[in-house]
Design a protein that fits this description.
Length: 367
């Protein structure tokens, strides 16, 4: 996108700012995100929603805006300035809606950039893990009384294991021989873990685990921190939908406890950090335990394993499909991401008993 194009799009929104410069932020795998700076020095996030992935963009925007409104209401004791740093603020268009559709049909939305905030792609200190746990835990807590019937299911079956397996099976049937050969070991891993990876799905289907309003993309880079490394704001609410808490817990764990980035190729660097796990659990349960059932807490470690597996499976499926879903930077990028997640599962599995013990002790300490 050129500065001219972004300037024009930004001008469709209702504000008094004048576009000055932009920078593309490349950490997301789906949408295109730009950081704009205006002549007065204010900053905004301008984002193009990928409508190939999100079929109902107006529904998605309505979800995000109403979740923000709900959070603002719940945190109304904060000062206005503080509230703007704790909850995403969306800017409407001059027509009074929260997205602009350009002449090519692309959907755009604008948010206030939370200045001075920090994000982490990988975590190297326990404090961040603990703060991340508190922040995502608080998000679940504050949205626990949000009326889920108001939410559009933006991606049906998003974390549905049976659905992800069927996508994988279809990809396997249609993949090139070369890609199947390259992915041989990973394909075997998928088959080996199949039964265990359906446990949570089965509990969910049997309604043994409660459906709640969940974020569904709680990787640690979707948490903002302040300069003192205290949790500030949960961002990227594109996928807020009803779900079970285990996947929100798991998505945070798979990114916080991975000693390397999600696409690190050197698998020796990819290990599961148990201390960060414990720190996250502590922060998370401090905010949520009063509303969680014993069964929910018990299955959190399996949530971490299952969510890591879902990502391994989805990256692998996309590799077999010749990379049609995620943005990739080189031909084996999805394969590397999948390998990385499987290595993380291996390291997590070696420490699984300790993860379970930690959670059980926590439940014990509540009695
Ligand atoms: C995608 O685009 P981004 O980075 O927010 C994906 C998530 C994955 C994540 C992996 C809608 O999120 O499910 O966990 O990549 N979002 C969608 O990093 O598929
Ligand atoms: Mg996302």
């Amino acid at each position: 996108m050129t500065a001219e194009q972004l300037k024009f799009i930004f001008e469709q929104f209702d504000h008094i700012e004048v576009f000055k410069t932009f920078e593309e932020l490349s950490s997301g795998h789906i949408n295109d995100t730009y950081l704009l700076t205006t002549q007065s020095g204010k900053q905004f996030i301008l984002q193009r929603i990928n409508e190939g992935v999100f079929k109902d963009v107006p529904g998605l925007i309505a979800n995000k805006v109403s979740v923000s409104k709900h959070l603002q209401k719940k945190l109304k004791n904060l000062s206005e300035a503080e509230l703007k740093r704790r909850v995403l603020t969306f800017i409407g268009t001059k027509k009074g809606i929260f997205y602009y559709q350009d002449k090519d049909g692309n959907f755009w939305n604008v948010m206030v950039y939370i200045e001075g905030s920090l994000t982490f792609e990988t975590v190297n200190n326990q404090e961040i893990a603990y703060e991340g746990g508190k922040l995502f835990g608080e998000f679940l807590n504050l949205t626990s009384d949000f009326d889920a019937r108001k939410l559009t299911e933006v991606i049906p079956n998003f974390h549905n294991m049976a659905f992800r397996y069927s996508q994988f099976d279809t990809a396997l049937k249609e993949a090139s021989e070369q890609r199947i050969e390259q992915a041989k070991i990973l394909i075997q891993n998928v088959q080996d873990l199949k039964e265990e990876m359906h446990i949570l799905q089965n509990l969910k289907d049997a309604k043994k685990i409660k459906l709640r309003v969940t974020h569904n993309d709680t990787k640690i880079s979707n948490a903002l921190f302040d300069q003192n490394k205290k949790g500030l704001c949960v961002i990227d609410t594109d996928t807020v939908m009803p779900g079970i808490i285990h996947y929100d817990f798991g998505d945070a764990i798979r990114t916080i406890c991975n000693t390397a980035a999600e696409d690190e190729q050197n698998l020796d660097l990819v290990n599961f950090n148990l201390e960060f796990y414990k720190a996250y659990v502590k922060g998370f349960l401090e905010k949520t335990n009063s509303s969680l059932s014993t069964l929910e807490i018990k299955y959190l470690p399996l949530g971490a394993k299952t969510m890591t597996f879902i990502m391994a499976l989805r990256f692998l499926t996309d590799f077999l499909n010749d990379d049609v879903y995620y943005k990739t930077e080189y031909p084996e990028h999805n394969l590397d991401r999948s390998r990385n997640q499987f290595k993380l599962i291996e390291s997590l599995t070696e420490q699984f008993r300790e993860m379970e013990d930690y959670n059980l002790n926590f439940i014990g300490s509540l009695k």
